[in-house]
């Protein structure tokens, strides 16, 4: 009879700690990602708490640093607006304080310039001839990306007469 544990690897707290140190050193992680990874490694709750505590103490895990890196990356690379960044950070269990400090990293001028470039680029890709449908497609795209509705509607009205 084969046991259901035969293909699973078991980790000691030291092995799991080392593995998580590498996991966190590779890129910024949030507590939720680390906890889920430890659960997937079949670690017991007491071990998870001990390892997460160690990672925080040794500065491998830092929610504020994670939030700032996440916000910068999603804004610069994926061109997300603050609504989408906020939603994704909340989903990862990041505190409101850390979300605010992460969004403060993005300069207002950069934010508006990026939004303007993104809107113009997207508009040039929309083949629709009906101005109402064109506005809707542009608005939907920008709202999905997490840009504030007042900015989106001002911009679509400015670009599509």
Automatic annotation (TrEMBL):
<keyword id="KW-0963">Cytoplasm</keyword>
<dbReference type="Pfam" id="PF02631">
    <property type="entry name" value="RecX_HTH2"/>
</dbReference>
<dbReference type="InterPro" id="IPR053924">
    <property type="entry name" value="RecX_HTH_2nd"/>
</dbReference>
<dbReference type="InterPro" id="IPR053925">
    <property type="entry name" value="RecX_HTH_3rd"/>
</dbReference>
<feature type="domain" description="RecX second three-helical">
    <location>
        <begin position="62"/>
        <end position="103"/>
    </location>
</feature>
<dbReference type="Pfam" id="PF21981">
    <property type="entry name" value="RecX_HTH3"/>
</dbReference>
<comment type="similarity">
    <text>Belongs to the RecX family.</text>
</comment>
<dbReference type="InterPro" id="IPR003783">
    <property type="entry name" value="Regulatory_RecX"/>
</dbReference>
<dbReference type="InterPro" id="IPR036388">
    <property type="entry name" value="WH-like_DNA-bd_sf"/>
</dbReference>
<feature type="domain" description="RecX third three-helical">
    <location>
        <begin position="109"/>
        <end position="154"/>
    </location>
</feature>
<protein>
    <recommendedName>
        <fullName>Regulatory protein RecX</fullName>
    </recommendedName>
</protein>
<comment type="function">
    <text>Modulates RecA activity.</text>
</comment>
